[in-house]
Amino acid sequence: xxxxxxxxxxxxxxxxxxxxxxxxxxxxxxxxxxxxxxxxxxxxxxxxxxxxxxxxxxxxxxxxxxxxxxxxxxxxxxxxxxxxxxxxxxxxxxxxxxxxxxxxxxxxxxxxxxxxxxxxxxxxxxxxxxxxxxxxxxxxxxxxxxxxx
Length: 149
Ligand code: RP5
What we know:
This protein is mainly α. It contains six helices and three strands; from the N terminus they run ααβαβαβαα. The protein has a three-stranded parallel beta sheet with strand order 1-2-3. The protein is globular, with a radius of gyration of 16 Å. 5-O-phosphono-beta-D-ribofuranose is lined by residues 1-3, 5-6, 30, 57-59, 80, 82.
């Protein structure tokens, strides 16, 4: 994430990974305030065995796009709701990536879905994770079907 101010929103992703037993790195690295660190971290991600990167940022939210430019590891962007424009600034910064460097962008503050999407990607080559994801979906469906109001 770009700032510690993003931590509360991004914590929804950590919760999902903890529930699924997925290991993750949790870092604050700003594309604008610490570009050299971002380069070192992102360019080495694949060799460190990272399968998917989730980048949450607000405002001029370049973090996922710049990260995606430095690695072929899939990058999921989480636009963070900031003080202006209802999060549209972050959303458009991420979703309007130029052709050739994709960022899979989820909803504003959509950290939970970012984690679930990352798990879907990892589940393609991980049977245990695939089974857990199917179980999660089953329980989610049952909860809706059994809802009484
Ligand atoms: C972005 O600017 C961060 O991702 C954060 O969402 C936003 C504001 O950062 P702070 O000023 O709170 O550090 O880089």
